[in-house]
Amino acid sequence: MRKIYVAGHRGMVGGAILRRLEARKAAGEALELVTRTHAELDLTDQAAVRGFMETERPDVVILAAAKVGGIHANNTYPADFIYENLMIECNVIHQAFAAGVKQLLQLGSSCIYPKEAPQPMREDALLTGTLEPTNEPYAIAKIAGIKLCESYNRQHGVDYRSVMPTNLYGPGDNFHPENSHVLPALIRRFHEAVRDGLDEVVIWGTGKPRREFLHVDDMAEASLFVLDLPRAEYEANTQPMLSHINVGSGEDISIAELAALVAKVTGFNGRITQDASKPDGAMRKLMDVTRLANMGWRARIGLEEGIRETYQWFLENQNSVRR
Ligand SMILES: NC(=O)C1=CN([C@@H]2O[C@H](COP(=O)(O)OP(=O)(O)OC[C@H]3O[C@@H](n4cnc5c(N)ncnc54)[C@H](OP(=O)(O)O)[C@@H]3O)[C@@H](O)[C@H]2O)C=CC1
Ligand SMILES: C[C@H]1O[C@H](OP(=O)(O)OP(=O)(O)OC[C@H]2O[C@@H](n3cnc4c(=O)[nH]c(N)nc43)[C@H](O)[C@@H]2O)[C@@H](O)[C@@H](O)C1=O
Fold it and tell me: Does pTM top 0.90 for this prediction?
């Protein structure tokens, strides 16, 4: 029996990972799944996390809990983003180690790479240049998470792995008008424009930045794929000082093209205009996913198909989505 604690199971990614693990359990795999809501266990509380780990003593920890948001939220609440994420990582990773957890998987983000990193961004671009200012505090916390895992592996011989997702979207996303990421924000804005008979939708920035999007079900599958790799295979592909793996679709699209796609899916036929007073952020963030592809994993869900499915989910869950 393998006891797995999924931290952040009510979030978009943690929820998708939990659904996948529950399906495996239902299919007969010997799994015990442990979860706590934010209200039950605040992961920024060191003593509470220590008590939880000592009591539950999971075999495996999946860290999908974090303070998460789009460009505006990162830019507006930098103290929350660096403080909460550093505390969550330090508490979960250290207290897991102290309670004897041998295997852990944590999620970082593509924003760990320098603003001007060569595209597509390889894992070894880490710490080679200046970060994008709109999310530097969050990125610093995520880099600290990678270094925590590397350091515990080096000093204590544990097996703590890190995956770096590109921009994610899907069922369970945050549709808040200001604090969400671009894709849920546009799904909601275009939907409301159609509903209210508006003839114009405004998108933030110039529309020129390019982003790579990955459906959360692909991300959940990739996370468990990396977790389940034999240790020798994981380490052969990461080297001791380079312990993280990019996860993406390998394709990017401009924000203007993305807006046109969301307009098509939601049935909006009016004008799309830009608010250049809003930040663009990084001009391009495309992951090099060669390492993961060489290990045998690639994304399956196409962007238009994924947006259609997410829009359907939004329509069915409008009254309960985060907004
Ligand atoms: N969404 C994206 O585009 C991307 C996400 N990632 C990473 O993937 C991971 C998951 O993100 P995602 O699922 O999108 O985010 P969500 O915001 O959907 O989920 C995060 C979860 O963490 C929980 N949480 C936050 N703070 C605490 C805390 N102090 N104690 C306990 N629980 C807490 C939240 O609970 P509550 O809501 O109650 O606060 C929520 O359930 C994160 O590490 C994120 O950085 C990386 C790249 C892109
Ligand atoms: C995953 C990643 O997410 C964040 O970085 P980001 O990639 O810049 O994220 P974003 O989704 O918020 O924006 C992408 C682009 O889209 C444009 N854009 C247009 N219109 C809207 C809009 O309505 N909302 C938002 N949010 N963006 C919009 C926006 O101006 C930008 O050019 C990081 O802070 C960090 O958290 C991180 O790791």
Answer: yes
